[in-house]
Design a protein that fits this description.
- The protein is mostly helical and about 120 residues long.
- It has one domain.
- Helix 1 packs across helix 6.
- The chain starts with a helix and ends with a helix.
């Protein structure tokens, strides 16, 4: 839970800093735009890591290992089978990414309602 809260406040701060960098001011519309981009990045990276952890890219990486050569010599079938699949190499807790991205998106949605009302 602490990681989620910390990541949320970091992403919120990044959104505010990006407002000043891109728009040279801080207004509601600039914050809405930047918080959308930051939350989109968090959610998209979380989804990509989730798909990777579930093994979607394992067969692709296995095929590349079989086709391409390593250090000028072909890999034997045993060497390819001994290599860890990509899904085993990526082991992250994705809950903080999803929750902080969803939290920032919720803040953005509230700001959007305020902007249009």
């Amino acid at each position: 839970m602490k990681k989620t809260i910390l990541l949320f406040f970091i992403s919120f701060a990044v959104s505010v800093i990006l407002c000043f960098i891109v728009y040279h001011s801080f207004d509601l519309l600039a914050f809405i735009n930047m918080s959308f981009l930051v939350s989109f990045f968090l959610l998209l990276s979380g989804l990509f890591l989730y798909v990777t952890q579930e093994g979607f890219f394992d067969s692709i990486t296995y095929g590349f290992r079989r086709v391409f050569q390593s250090k000028g010599s072909e890999l034997s079938k045993e060497e390819v089978d001994e290599m860890a699949p990509l899904s085993e190499l990526v082991s992250l807790n994705l809950k903080p990414l999803f929750l902080s991205g969803a939290g920032l998106a919720a803040v953005m949605a509230v700001c959007l309602l305020i902007y249009y009302v």
